[in-house]
Design brief:
Number of strands: 10
CATH architecture of the largest domain: 3-Layer(aba) Sandwich
CATH class of the largest domain: Alpha Beta
Bound molecules: S-adenosylmethionine
Largest sheet: 7 strands, mixed
Number of domains: 2
Shape: globular
CATH superfamily of the largest domain: Vaccinia Virus protein VP39
Structural class: alpha/beta
Number of helices: 13
Radius of gyration: 21 Å
Helix content: 40-55%
Strand order of the largest sheet: 6-2-1-7-8-10-9
Distance between the termini: 69 Å
């Protein structure tokens, strides 16, 4: 790809979805875009980029975004966030939340659904023991392809075997030809929709927990700060934001504070109030009662 085409494509992608393309990936990008050129009989990369810029919401642009985004994900990715959900967040939230409204979780760059379904399986095992209110899990991603795959919930042997413990596999998956299909019970607990993090969040409502992992580190600093500020407006004051375990908020001036002992977890209020030590919390409740 010519340098000028790469620069134009880079500007287009950043303004359309926030991701900053890196020049060392230029050849890979070109390889991913070539089938789109052929399919649409477009003569050369310059013409493709011109068409994308001319009509950023076209089918062509949607196809280009689908191939440019990196969708790597795993069930129970990094393990520790799901352990923290099971051991601290769900037991505390089931005590502190009103049952009159649903507990709402948003996986906002969910890729092919593994993150949102991992939340659903964790909730099914832990939260359901102490919470009889509604649970609403929303998975969104800018990639139409990813959202369609997430809805299908049919995964390869490698996808499942890599990180799903055997007892979870037996409990929640069924073999369907060469794929592993998540059981209807878990699938029905998660809604998916296509959604761009650069769009207005207001129509999605408010959340108790927001997973935003392994996406903002690919954004420009300004777009990352903007998304974080807008996520803060949608998060309950005593809610939790979960970033990737290797991501940091260095350089971000907003209100999120890291939770000690739960890597990647952030709160707006004092973390010790949102996620108090579970034993202390139970003792305090017992003494008060
Ligand atoms: C590397 S995957 C991370 C998936 C999952 N959160 C995880 O940590 O396993 C990044 C996802 O972010 C999505 N993405 C990139 N830009 C986005 C945007 N502007 N709005 C919503 N999703 C976006 C991509 O399509 C991709 O599926």
């Amino acid at each position: 790809m010519r340098k000028t085409d790469f620069e134009d494509l880079k500007a287009f992608i950043e303004s359309r979805i926030g991701i900053v393309l890196r020049e060392e990936h230029s050849k890979t990008l070109e390889n991913r875009l070539l089938p789109i050129l052929r399919r649409n009989q477009i003569d050369g990369m310059s013409n493709l980029v011109t068409q994308l810029i001319r009509d950023p919401d076209s089918e062509l642009a949607i196809d280009a975004i689908d191939v440019i985004t990196t969708r790597e994900t795993f069930f129970f990715r990094d393990e520790s966030p799901f352990n923290a959900l099971a051991e601290r967040v769900f037991p505390i939230f089931s005590q502190t939340r009103e049952r009159t409204r649903p507990l709402r979780v948003w996986s906002c760059a969910t890729s092919t659904g593994q993150e949102a379904y991992s939340v659903a399986m964790t909730a099914d095992q832990i939260l359901r023991q102490s919470w009889d209110g509604d649970l609403d899990i929303l998975g969104t991603d800018v990639s139409n392809y990813a959202v369609e795959k997430a809805r299908q919930a049919a995964y390869s042997q490698i996808d499942v075997q890599r990180t799903v413990p055997a007892r979870i596999m037996v409990r929640y998956f069924e073999k369907n030809k060469s794929r592993w299909q998540l059981q209807r019970g878990i699938r029905s607990q998660v809604r998916f929709r296509q959604f761009n993090l650069l769009d207005d969040f207001a129509l999605l409502g408010d959340f108790d927990i927001i997973f935003c992992r392994n996406v903002l580190s690919t954004f420009s600093e300004a777009k990352r700060a903007d998304v974080l500020d807008r996520l803060a407006q949608r998060l309950a004051p005593d809610g939790i934001l979960v970033l990737g375990t290797l991501e940091t908020l260095i350089g971000y001036q907003g209100d999120f504070k890291p939770v000690k002992g739960a890597r990647g977890f952030y709160t707006l209020a004092d973390p010790a109030e949102v996620l108090p030590d579970l034993n202390l919390h139970m003792n305090r409740k017992r003494n008060a009662g």
